[in-house]
Amino acid sequence: xxxxxxxxxxxxxxxxxxxxxxxxxxxxxxxxxxxxxxxxxxxxxxxxxxxxxxxxxxxxxxxxxxxxxxxxxxxxxxxxxxxxxxxxxxxxxxxxxxxxxxxxxxxxxxxxxxxxxxxxxxxxxxxxxxxxxxxxxxxxxxxxxxxxxxxxxxxxxxxxxxxxxxxxxxxxxxxxxxxxxxxxxxxxxxxxxxxxxxxxxxxxxxxxxxxxxxxxxxxxxxxxxxxxxxxxxxxxxxxxxxxxxxxxxxxxxxxxxxxxxxxxxxxxxxxxxxxxxxxxxxxxxxxxxxxxxxxxxxxxxxxxx
Length: 305
Hints:
Blueprint: H1 4-16, H2 19-25, H3 30-44, E1 49-50, E2 57-58, H4 60-87, E3 92-98, H5 104-117, E4 121-127, H6 133-139, E5 144-147, E6 156-170, E7 191-194, H7 203-209, E8 218-221, H8 225-233, E9 238-242, H9 243-251, E10 256-259, E11 265-274, H10 281-297
Parallel strand pairs: 3-4, 3-5, 7-8, 7-9
Antiparallel strand pairs: 1-2, 5-11, 6-9, 6-10, 6-11
């Protein structure tokens, strides 16, 4: 029964103090404005203001609608402003979730750089290690997911960020250090150290061990890359890690690394987003910033097709 135009009309009538000026404010003729008010009064079956009073005196029903207008109209104006800025790519929300433990090294500088250029974009960051982030992205709870395990889902779009080689980290005294590359069967006698992630989401399993029906002798987990490297260096196991995450440790001869398979195990990191946001200016700029930061700071990565 009550429409937005009615609230705007009553608000203009109160502020203007006369039908003539109120009609000008809402871009109607005085006759059209009077007809609109009369139509609303007939719908509500009550008068909204007392005629021929100056200033205009509103009835109790009219005052109630004015209170509603005072609540609703500012909210609508703010929403319209936000939508206009979103349409222009100047503002928005970017809730990011990462499924990559070692990605903090490049994601933090990317976010810092992005925040300077887009201060009006609301940023938030979480990890996807305890829930399924892609369904959350599809629902709208998240806006961007960094993943190496893209799943075909309606309404989602994947952009490759870069490719990297997953290599096996070994202690300097490990027996496999003499190998040029690692075969899956080599890990049947090893303790495999991984991040605390389901094996079905780890490339070392899905793309290297599982196709050969090989399982490691044991598995243990560590939350941080530095903890994994420490365990490897101490001879407590081996770990498959991105080549760029191991670079500083290899430079210091803290551990050794060998390719997984004769051709190496190359993986691609993707940014997942909803289709309706893939062309938003701030989203495009975030992806470009991520590429610039990673290729400037990470060793051993290459462009993803």
